[in-house]
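Hello,

Following up on my earlier ticket. Below are the two sequence lines again, exactly as submitted.
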Amino acid sequence: MKNLYIILMSAFVVLLSSCTKVVDLKLDDPESKIAVDGLISNRVGESFVKLAYTKGYLSSDAPEAIVDAQVSVRDSDGNLTIFTASDNDGLYLPSTDFVGEVGKTYTLDVEYEGESLSAESTMNDTVTGSNVNVIKADITDPYFEAGYHLLATIKKYKEEDSFYKGEIFINGVKQMTTASDIVAFNDRMFEAGEELEARLYFWAETSEDDEKPQMGDVVTLQLISISEETYEYLSALSETPMQGGLFGKTPANVPSNIEGGLGWFQASSFGNPKHSMVME
Amino acid sequence: MKGKAYSPTQDRPHAINIVSSYQIKPRLQFGAAWTYSSGAPISLPTSSYEFDGVVVPVYDEKNGYRLPDSHRLDVSLTLDGKKKPGRKWEYSYNFSIYNLYARQNPFSIQVRQNADNPRQTEAVQTSLVGTMIPAITLNIKF
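Thanks for your patience. The regenerated structure is below:
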């Protein structure tokens, strides 16, 4: 009877494990469009505009960079900054020691081969977490899954809601690689003066050693104050891996604030990064 | 998308069902059923761009693609029990195999970034039943 049970359970496991496979698909070759990834930062040397053509979704080719466009950014006071191509990789950098300022609205203009693209974004107040901790939970923990959790305490200091993006680094190496890793949240549910305690990132105990923090590593949280529109964009982007499939959402395009093209342009302010050393 | 008409997910333009049975011996019966249906419409991204290192999918059309066709063959062998005079109940054994040629019929296709090389994208097909399933049944009629 025991053998029969083992055979039945093995068959069940085989049945479940043989259900997914990577397949070759032939997708249409669509017309290329210009895609923008643009950031205006409140820190020197961090603002950029990146231009490239869209590429076939399953193509293994690198995106084709756009290297000879005219790119400029105008702030709400009328100051114009020209962004010039730094290399042949489609990256455009300000020609001066340009820094974005909180409260200003920035308008991006791109001219390329007769096409005009534009976008607008306002830089919100800088935000900073007051406390950052990495805790390790084992399998007996009643509240957390087994693994490492990055916890942060953030104070809502004004009536208006703030929108946050978190970038996480282990010993200076950025952790985000896929859409699922995007950390974007808001304080809509809190009153001014309240503190929100957020679990921002999780590394599973079962992850490979080089994919999770180790004892003595320094984990850094960089909080970025983003606009509500940028928050909606990042939220939609972070949900794209859940689209389609067995229990997934209906696939849909993420929004874009680029008139005449695709992508996203944001003016975002970076607070002081907070560090935490991983301990037992 | 863009006000265009699109095929609903339930749209299966072609469906074939063939059912047959054969009496091999007075107490032994063979049955087979083959079913076929064309694939359901799905939405797949045709292009992508990168934002902060993340691949952003771009859809041009809703339900613009179809899953591969689905088909499978189920077979069964039914052995009736010996009838005895005066007995008020009958029984039979049924030996069957669902999805005889173990076809992995697609239920859905999802796209994702490759875990080891996030700049590379791939399509993943999910099958609810990816293999053959044998079964033994005892039927008692009273």
